[in-house]
Amino acid sequence: ILNVEQSPQSLHVQEGDSTNFTCSFPSSNFYALHWYRWETAKSPEALFVMTLNGDEKKKGRISATLNTKEGYSYLYIKGSQPEDSATYLCAFIEPDSNYQLIWGAGTKLIIKP
Amino acid sequence: DAGVTQSPTHLIKTRGQQVTLRCSPKSGHDTVSWYQQALGQGPQFIFQYYEEEERQRGNFPDRFSGHQFPNYSSELNVNALLLGDSALYLCASSLFLARGWSDTQYFGPGTRLTVL
Prior knowledge:
Chain A is mainly β. Chain A has no helices and eleven strands. Chain A has strands at about 5, 10-15, 20-25, 35-40, 45-50, 55-60, 60-65, 70-75, 85-95, 100-105, 105-110. In chain A, strand 6 and strand 7 form a beta hairpin. The termini of chain A are far apart.
């Protein structure tokens, strides 16, 4: 059973500070990685789909990088705002299991005003 | 344009009962996937439906079954409920890709099932 690990499990950040967290996945057979943001009482919202080693994607103050050779992706948030408070989930596409999505447990980000 | 909708929002059942959860996909989407999310864990894939057939299945027992209708909406049925089935059940819709999951999935708000 493949594991997708996210760290840290939770994170408290002061408003205005920048932060980042990690998604680790098996590096042996990469297809794609998804990042989602999930605010409390709302539906998970897609942020990025990462497919190529060295990919960098950006959406406003949020960006993500991908290293398929070492098996990790970073999500960065620049100048955190209270509306960034959410759980950030990554999901790895597992080619050897018929391309199922294997999800991490998420990083819960809390922005302190 | 309506996004993914799920019903009901909350549900309380007792052990041994059966439950049916419903999902309507985002307009234009033809594929529906179901996930179970227990507290403190990431979503676990249950199964995916396309063209009214179960196309993929995760590691869930046969007590979990589903259906997709011609209008692409879907149902998740769970028989003989166990306490451990208490979770948030998420539905996600997307466009079917012959290979892979690169297409973004759009999630509904979920159904919170409590089994007593």
